[in-house]
Design goal:
The chain is built from five helices and no strands.
Length: about 140
């Protein structure tokens, strides 16, 4: 197997894990803020806007990570663009991140509208954190 391929895959996995850890950490703080705001009677529309802003920021981070692997201008100069296998691999990582972000957005909105209790919200968010591909509707 090609050393460059192994190094690329390893680098991709490390970046994915770091990104996921960062997103989970940010989510934990934001989740606590949402719980406090629901308890203090902040209007749903205000919380929806906050949720959408956090979601957009997370999506931009995920897109930036994808672009850094498949759209790096330095690679163009070196003529070492991502191979089809590399590209497929990074797209799969990106899709998992986007699903994670989408699922989190959904359960947050269900929580602030009262469709989920605090306990259900925390249970669902923990399930998503433990397995980013998981979500039960």
């Amino acid at each position: 197997m090609n050393k460059g391929l192994i190094l690329g895959i390893t680098g991709g996995v490390v970046v994915f894990l770091i990104t996921l850890t960062l997103i989970i950490y940010i989510n934990s703080d934001f989740d606590q803020k949402l719980i406090n705001e629901v308890g203090s009677g902040v209007p749903i529309s205000v919380m929806y806007n906050q949720i959408d802003n956090v979601t957009q920021n997370q999506q931009l981070i995920a897109k930036g990570n994808l672009d850094s692997h498949v759209m790096d201008p330095n690679d163009w100069e070196k003529k070492t663009l991502a191979t089809n296998d590399d590209y497929d691999y990074y797209i799969q990582i990106y899709n998992v991140e986007m699903e994670y972000i989408s699922n989190y957005n959904h359960i947050r909105k269900e929580y602030v509208t009262g469709k989920l209790s605090k306990e259900e919200f925390l249970e669902e968010s923990n399930s998503i954190k433990e397995n980013p591909g998981y979500y039960s509707m």
